[in-house]
Amino acid sequence: MSTAINFIVRDAYPSECGKAIELTLEAYRQYEPDFGPTFWESYISNIKSQWERKGDSWRIVAEQEGELIGALLLYPPQEGLYEKLKETIPYPEIRLLGVHSSARGKGVATALIGESARRARQSGAAYLGLHTSNRMPDAVRLYLSLGFEREPRYDFFAADNTTVVEAYRLPLHTANHT
After folding, report:
1. Do 24 and 98 touch, CB atoms closer than 8 A?
2. What are the residues facing 132 on neighbouring strands?
3. What is the CATH code of the structural domain delimited by 8-171?
4. How sure is the predictor about 91, in pLDDT bands with cuts at 50, 70 and 90?
5. pTM (2 d.p.)
6. Which chain regions cross the lipid bilayer (predicted)?
7. pLDDT single digits (tens) 126-173
């Protein structure tokens, strides 16, 4: 069993964009062999462009002793959040949750999701959403254990046109995330 570690969750500083990209790429690198070179390059490009976009999301990080150990983007409801999804998701959406391999299993992802749920609840949202795929079974298990439920209405196919990007949502009125 993993032991908890001390860290803080906060907004990312503008100067940390590069570090957040590196962290996210490191966190997702385990999926590279399953994605194939073309899809993987597209995924890397997407990670970079999402972190480099200005002004339309909260950039939330977990820091331990001056080092980033976790990061995510939290978007308010907006049209066109996902290129392949024509519908607007009516609640905030987590994207690109990544935890450094050395900090996994120690509550970092749960704390980042908890902060996202707090902000979504504070904005009046009934749900907090995210998308993932069955290529990421550990992530799916975590989300289900935290109370996320499937919302297939917002599923779509990834850039490879074979991977289903599955929508999940967390009901905020029953969530124990503060």
Report:
1. yes
2. 166
3. 3.40.630.30
4. very high
5. 0.90
6. none
7. 999 999 998 888 899 999 999 999 999 999 998 778 889 999 999 998
